[in-house]
Amino acid sequence: MYLCLYFVLGLLSSKGCFSGDPNPEKVVAFAGENAILPCSLKTSGSDDLPTVEWSKEGLKPNVVFLYRNGFETFEMKNLAFEFRTSLFMREVKNGNFSLRISNLKPSDAGIYQCLIIQGNGSRETTDVQLVVGMTTSV
Ligand SMILES: *[C@@H]1O[C@H](CO)[C@@H](O)[C@H](O)[C@H]1NC(C)=O
Ligand SMILES: *[C@@H]1O[C@H](CO)[C@@H](O)[C@H](O)[C@H]1NC(C)=O
User: Fold this and answer.
1) Strands across the sheet containing 63-68
2) What is the pTM of this model?
3) Ligand 1 pocket: which of 46, 116, 118, 124 to mutate (most atoms <8 Å of CB)?
4) SUPFAM superfamilies given for it (predicted)?
5) Which domains does the chain have, with CATH numbers?
């Protein structure tokens, strides 16, 4: 079954689903608004809390959100994303590690990767492309 995930935020109207390669998924949001980058666990291998690392391609350091032992870990986080990234904590227990990026900047556009490392060592990655549109108001 082809699962179509197309996230539309704000006032943007949906252009419908992508045909072809669904990887990476594409998220479109406007500068100054929030974006939700989807990432969910596909196969649950362990009841232990997984480690979840969201990174951005080409960024140094590339970590934009790191979740370990049930908490956010800040040590490796890129300062450009300080206070701007979070998970939906009520969703985490359902294996949903979608990332919220708030107050989007044009420079946030790019490819993000969600890496989930489960207690049994099993790894899953999800790539998401973020497109940041410019608001035409002002
Ligand atoms: C972890 O558990 C899942 C689900 O039981 C399994 O599919 C996967 O192969 C396991 N990974 C490892 C590294 O054992
Ligand atoms: C994960 O949580 C986010 C935020 O609540 C929600 O928008 C998204 O639909 C959820 N994804 C799944 C697969 O449940």
Assistant:
1) 7-8, 25-30, 123-133, 110-117, 51-56, 63-68, 71-72
2) 0.81
3) 118
4) Immunoglobulin
5) 3-137 (2.60.40.10)
